[in-house]
Amino acid sequence: MSADGPDLVVAGAGGGLIGALRAAQSGLDVLVVEASEHFTRGNNTSMCTAMIPGVGSRFQKELGIEDSADLFAADVERKTKGTGDQRLARTLAEVSGEMVEWMADEVGLEISLMTDMHYPGHSVDRCHTIPERHGNALIDHLARTARSHPKIDFLVPARLTDVELDADGAVCAVIVTDPSGASERIETPAVLLATNGFGADHEMVAEHMPEIASATYHGSETSRGDGLRIGTRLGAASAYLDAYQGHGALAAKSATLLGWATIMHGAIMLDTTGRRFAKETSGYSEFGPYLAARPGATGWVVFDRRVHDLCQPFTDFRQTVESGAEVWADDAAALAEVTGLPVDAVVAELEESALAARGHVEDRFGREYEAPLEPPYAAVRVVPALFHTQGGLVVDEKARVVDADDRPIPGLYASGGAAAGVSGHGAGGYLAGNGLMPAFGLAYLAATVVANG
């Protein structure tokens, strides 16, 4: 680190590590400030399923998959019902393919394109992942690589509590506070706010997204809106504060993610009346508030041996099974008994969904099925969850934080949940990867812009 301070301060060691690595590989001195000493097991990146959309990557091209920024932007437009940020969607799409290739070639991650399960809302397969399909392995690799880089220093545990601007309105320093309350001023010309959103601040969640406020929060306890507060104090614009990623399949027994691959491979969801209540394949995020509104705010995901076996590549699914959350029954009536659901309703729903899956009747919610469920049946009780917020500071095509007149605040950048994302309003606009794509993509962009002066 130079005597004049780092070239870039990154606040947050989740997706922010992408920015730190990109900047350091470009020759910049970087300081990473992270609030939790256990960040490799406690931040949102570590809890994710490691799905990174990459548009036009060589991994797609090798499989003959044609993708484009226009197609991704159209997917965002459709999923968000026209409310998503098209400028940011195109910006992320245009850099994402290059970024996942860089992650493979320069960061050393074992990247591949996931084609065995198709996430709702994406027109083509574009979610790239690692063999473990889990954030623990992803963050472990990024942290090891960053810690070993001679141009990157870490300050952990410490919280970035303020950013100072000079007389010209440009970033000139940060204030960093340790757990004892002692503060230090560090001079720097550039700051990347990668502190995630405000999911751990219950009052802010209740204010901006009351429909999910009573659900389980399944994210980092350090996601308290630090980036949003700092940027707002500096005159930054904010948007989409009601946007979030919900989930309808957090296993109640183990607080692990059952995963939506179960649904996409043919599982159905029943509420406590034993009935289906929505089109399951519409998306896992919107099923968070859907399930929260059902009796008892809980339900059961029902699947079979075929679905069980197909979900084995997912670490979260295996952990859920290993926890004992999965129950089995030889037929529908027995399933009703072990779940405590009304037998007539369970039998009727399994019969009707099987008929729809075989094409004998039209599904009353309009869903399509990969295959009908066959006995014996498995079930896992699930509860709704809030994973992370999707609103925050408005950024431009260079990841620069802007004010209400769309003017950049020189030297201030934001990524991930600290920035307003592309999910529109509420939970329904979330596409798989809408968390990691701006977390990694905006961090990558910010570091590139800082390195290029």
From TrEMBL:
Ranges for domain FAD-dependent oxidoreductase 2 FAD-binding: 7-428
Keyword Metal-binding tagged: no
Enzyme Commission code: 1.3.5.4
Cofactor or coenzyme needed: FAD
Source superkingdom: Bacteria
Gene Ontology MF terms in the entry: steroid dehydrogenase activity, acting on the CH-CH group of donors
Keywords: FAD, Flavoprotein, Oxidoreductase
InterPro entries named among the record's database cross-references: FAD-dep_OxRdtase_2_FAD-bd, FAD-oxidoreductase_2, FAD/NAD-bd_sf, Succ_DH/fumarate_Rdtase_cat_sf
Biological process according to GO: steroid metabolic process
Protein name in the entry: Fumarate reductase flavoprotein subunit
